[in-house]
Write a structure and sequence with these properties.
2 copies of one chain form a homodimer. Chain A has 200 residues and is of the alpha+beta class. Helix content of chain A is 54%, strand content 9%. In chain A, strand 3 and strand 4 form a beta hairpin. In chain A, helix 5 runs antiparallel to helix 6, helix 5 packs parallel to helix 7 and helix 7 crosses helix 8. At the A-B interface, helix 3, helix 4 and helix 10 of A face helix 4 and helix 10 of B.
Chain lengths: 200, 200
């Protein structure tokens, strides 16, 4: 049994969204499982001394252009909600709360959240909006609202984020294959090749 | 006759070095010419508020790892000289001085400089070392040393760098196809596809 690959991302990361369209397919092609691990990227930005791409003059404009072009090439579109990027605490906590019982359902929720955040043009990061999305994926809305305030779930997300930082995660998406790190949706070709060849 | 594509880079940019292995081949495949345009990236970093990747904690370490892995996948190796990155003024000026008479010879010099800078582990950015490399490419050493101090050549590089900034260049490599911008050696697949399809 081959070890799972770790897929770290922030729910407010558009390149994380791009990678989310491919990571499971790439893993399955090589008889692996991709474990999705949402984290709070802001903590990593503080450590490294960087910030959201969109905040940089010129580079931020290019990023929007590149994102839309990349999405078009793959057959979807990206609209950033006003106020982007948001802290997506509620979505990340909801994910882990679901994943502890049903990892497949957690991914279904994650995809629905990503789609809503990056296509409707609405800010779905608040707990109420996040719970609506979870409800549309079949979860109990009130249970979600309770979960995002549950100290154990809060601690769980904090621990996952701390572990990500300890492993050297500084951006989203960030993928580990047997300890080998890959940053960025534009490295998915190397991820695929690494899984194919066992590394080089 | 299709318009040339512009290949902006800094001689101290290792991802520029990676792209230099491919850009002419990609251009020629689509009946285009790649015009090489060395520039001083430091000016762009100031405008955008970023800096050399290697200066960021954690992210800089990853960059070195990613560079070596990327180079290995393509059959070459990368060694950064001590004190990396350097201002490669002499190399960029030498390039334009040669290119004004012989663009092919300028590329031959550029490849030789890149190879020396990223493989010998020596700092070849000073004018004397740069002139040695130009001499090995068949140029007159003393003429090179004079050229890098020539006010007209200095002005030429400044103008090229200013134009790059006006066009939105903030990193290296940076490629334009009929005005469409692509940043990074990891976007060469999109460059190839854009040339193939005419855009999407």
């Amino acid at each position: 049994m081959l070890a799972p690959i770790d897929f770290y991302f922030d729910f407010a990361s558009p390149y994380g969204y791009v990678a989310s369209h491919h990571i499971d397919e790439i893993a399955e092609k090589h008889v692996r499982v991709a474990v999705w691990r949402p984290m709070m990227l802001g903590a990593a930005f503080k450590t490294v001394g960087t910030g959201p791409l969109v905040n940089y003059p010129i580079k931020g404009d290019y990023m929007l252009h590149d994102l839309r072009r990349t999405a078009r090439a793959e057959g979807f579109s990206i609209t950033l909600p006003p106020g982007f990027p948001h802290a997506t605490l509620a979505a990340a906590r909801t994910f882990y709360w679901i994943a502890d019982n049903d990892e497949a359902l957690a991914k279904t929720f994650a995809r629905a959240f990503f789609d809503a955040y990056f296509s409707t043009g609405e800010d779905v990061s608040p707990a109420e909006a996040t719970a609506d999305i979870a409800a549309s994926a079949g979860l109990d809305r009130d249970a979600v609202l309770a979960a995002v305030q549950d100290p154990a779930i809060k601690e769980r997300l904090k621990r996952e984020t701390d572990t990500a930082l300890e492993r050297g995660v500084f951006g989203s998406p960030f993928i580990f294959i047997d300890g080998e790190p890959f940053w960025g949706s534009d490295r998915l070709d190397q991820v695929d090749k690494w899984l194919e060849t066992g590394g080089w």
